[in-house]
Design a protein that fits this description.
The protein is α+β, with helices and mostly antiparallel strands. The protein has one domain: Sufe protein. Chain: A (Alpha-Beta Complex), CATH 3.90.1010. The chain contains four helices and four strands, in the order αβββαααβ. The chain has helices spanning about 5-25, 75-85, 90-105, 135-150; strands at about 40-45, 50-60, 60-70, 155-160. Strands 3-2-1-4 form a four-stranded mixed β-sheet, with helices on one face. A hairpin with a 4-residue loop joins strand 1 and strand 2 (about 50-60). The protein is globular, with a radius of gyration of 16 Å. Bound molecules: zinc ion.
Length: about 160
Amino acid sequence: MSAVTLHDVDELRDLYRELILDHARSPRHFGKLDGATHTAEGINPLCGDKLRLYMRLDDDNIEDASFEGSGCAISVASASLLTDMIIGLPVPQALEFFATVTARLTGRQAGSDDATPPELDKIRALDGVREFPSRVKCATLAWHALNSAIHGESAPVSTE
Ligand code: ZN
C-alpha cells in the first residue's frame, strides 16, 4: 500500500486552501509602508486585481515590505505570502524567488519540485492555479510588482 492515500492528498489540498483563505481574509503586512524606498504597482485588468507593493531596502537587504490594494483571494493571498517570504532577504535572493515562483506558477517548472527551495514551501499552496491560466496572473501579480520595484521601474506593471 502506498504511504499516501487519496484521503491524505485531499487533506493536503484542504490545508493549502485554508492557507490561501487565511491569507486572503487576513493579509499580512497590509497597508502603506512608512519610509519605503522602493514601490511598484501591479494591475491585472483581466480580473480587476490592483495592488501596490512597498519595500524598505537597506543596502541590499529587504528590511521591511508591505502591500495595499484590492483583488481576488488568490492575488491578495499571493501578495501576503510574498511579503511574509521576502522580509529579511537579500535582494538577489528575492529576485531568485521571483524567478522560481513565476516559473513554478506558469508551469515552466512543472514536475521539478526539487528545484523549489524549502523557504518557498508555502507557495505550493498556489500550485492549483496552474490549471487555470487566467488565475496564474492573479498569483504572479505581486511577484511581478516585486521585480519591478527592485529594478526601480516607475510604470505600473500590467499582466496584459
Ligand atoms: Zn485575480
